[in-house]
């Protein structure tokens, strides 16, 4: 039996096929262009397998409400061609198998929860900090959903007193994403974040924003584990800075796991999303195809 | 069959007994003094009934981890005599019935979810704004818990540009509770909030802080309903101000229910906590007494 997974990102689609034990037997990376061209690549890859089910972790916003007429769609994205694209519909009409559909960060949170850094917990938070900032969470063993999926990157945060940068979020200017995603580093200093690696001040400010957001996530969700992924977190010098700033801000108000075990890297590294999508595929296998 | 409920607050304990239909047949309010004297009042009230189970919504912090040695305790409260008081143990050793134990705000959230303002949803948030600020939530039909219960009142918020008040939170000074709970109104203006009812500026600033917190709760939890209770929210002129400030801050970034249906009063008014505790009592009835 084979399971299929798609981690659908704004720049690339990663597709994988696994066996029943979720061992990946083949994978491919397809540049995200138009829906038609991108899906053609996906179909070409999946067509060689008899898939039992497919899990999708997608860039958003997406419609995850099964009662909605636009369930399974990517909704109001500014990405040309993709707004109101019926993603699940396109996959189902090709393969006629059950499809699980959630956000890329929910899939990553679920992968880490089931088999990665958060194994043994009943809750976790996965945050990606890269070109954008997004978060997904598991609460009481289930993916956190409500009216729709979270959009945790846009928290309102306090401006660092030495920060002159106005923020780049088109909706909120200086929200968390507007001040701390990759483009903010470039916008503030005029050069790419990777070229700032040795500049301590840069990472102290970055850590102070991340820590603020983590304090708020902690007070609201009380997750057992916070997992930080994405391109900016490749700057691993951030981890101790974030933990120190977090401890200072929280000021022992609530108990957390020991911070080295609480604020951690993904167990699956860059594979958290694809592993979560495979896990969701396996769980949806056997369900009714509607 | 009778169910018992305790809404254990820092100033009073409200106890109630209901029939199987959760109709309250008797209730009493007992001032919170020492644990021994307060429990004596609770026992005197409950002793007249053959209770099948008891639900408790307690002031905190409390230990809700059933694997913990201090499960059922009120933990590190500054309230004299109550720190590390074995609340569930005291009740169980008297009545030998199943006891459900959660925070006062979790109980209120659950009451509103099951039978109050959030009926028909799978998620909601209940926030009380009074002497302190606390929040509880229901996610995918279950009370939100993780490493422990939420402490949503202490979110880090942005200071209002015209606010000279330093905040009264002993842990964080100018967190949400430090700037927006009842004592902040008194600390900022020198008179009790109730005497400020006609001062529009006061409520605009108050609403701006509440709206900030609601934006962050919304982005993280995406609840289907936000229910605002507590003494400060008796100033019902706050509701339209909060909705307007919320809309301006969120700037249509994510969809929410129509704001008049989203940011609402408790369906049970001041009874949300006791009704939630009765519901939890009924659900725990029949479970094993450990």
Bin the helical content of chain A: 25-40%
Strand fraction band of chain A? 15-25%
Report the average pLDDT across residues of chain A. 96
- Summarize the largest interface: chains and residue counts: A-B, 43 and 44 residues
Low-confidence segments of chain A, given as residue ranges, are none
Biggest sheet of chain A, strands in spatial order? 3-2-1-4-7
Quaternary structure classification: homodimer
> End-to-end distance of chain A, in Å?
21 Å
Alpha-carbon Rg of chain A, integer: 19 Å
Helical region count of chain A?
Answer: 9
Shape of chain A: globular
Please give the largest β-sheet of chain A. Answer: 5 strands, mixed
Look at the helices and sheets of chain A and give the structural class. alpha/beta
Give me the count of strands of chain A.
12
Order of helices and strands of chain A: EEEHEEEHEHEEEHHHEHHEH
In short:
The structure is a homodimer of 290-residue chains. Chain A is α/β, with parallel strands linked by helices and 290 residues long.
């Amino acid at each position: 039996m084979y399971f299929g997974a798609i981690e659908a990102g704004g720049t690339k689609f990663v597709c994988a096929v696994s066996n029943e034990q979720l061992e990946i037997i083949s994978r491919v990376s397809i540049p995200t262009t138009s829906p038609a061209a991108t899906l053609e690549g996906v179909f070409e890859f999946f067509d060689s397998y008899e898939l039992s089910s497919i899990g999708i972790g997608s860039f958003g916003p997406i419609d995850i409400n099964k009662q909605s007429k636009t369930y399974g769609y990517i909704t109001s994205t500014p990405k040309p061609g993709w707004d109101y694209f019926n993603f699940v519909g396109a996959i189902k009409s090709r393969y006629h198998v059950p499809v699980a559909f959630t956000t890329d960060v929910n899939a990553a949170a679920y992968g880490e929860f089931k088999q990665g850094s958060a194994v043994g917990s009943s809750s976790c938070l996965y945050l990606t900090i890269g070109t954008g900032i997004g978060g997904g969470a598991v609460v009481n063993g289930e993916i956190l959903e409500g009216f729709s999926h979270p959009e945790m990157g846009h928290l309102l945060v306090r401006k660092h007193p030495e920060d002159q940068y106005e923020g780049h979020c088109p909706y909120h200017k200086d929200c968390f994403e507007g001040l701390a995603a990759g483009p903010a580093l470039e916008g503030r200093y005029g050069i790419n974040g990777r070229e700032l690696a040795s500049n301590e001040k840069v990472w102290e400010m970055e850590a102070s924003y991340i820590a603020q957001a983590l304090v708020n996530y902690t007070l609201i969700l009380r997750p057992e584990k916070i997992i930080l992924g994405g391109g900016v977190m490749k700057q691993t010098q951030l981890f101790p800075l974030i933990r120190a700033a977090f401890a200072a801000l929280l000021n022992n108000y609530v108990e957390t796991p020991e911070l080295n075990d609480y604020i951690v890297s993904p167990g699956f590294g860059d594979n958290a999303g694809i592993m979560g999508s495979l896990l969701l595929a396996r769980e949806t296998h056997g369900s009714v195809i509607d």
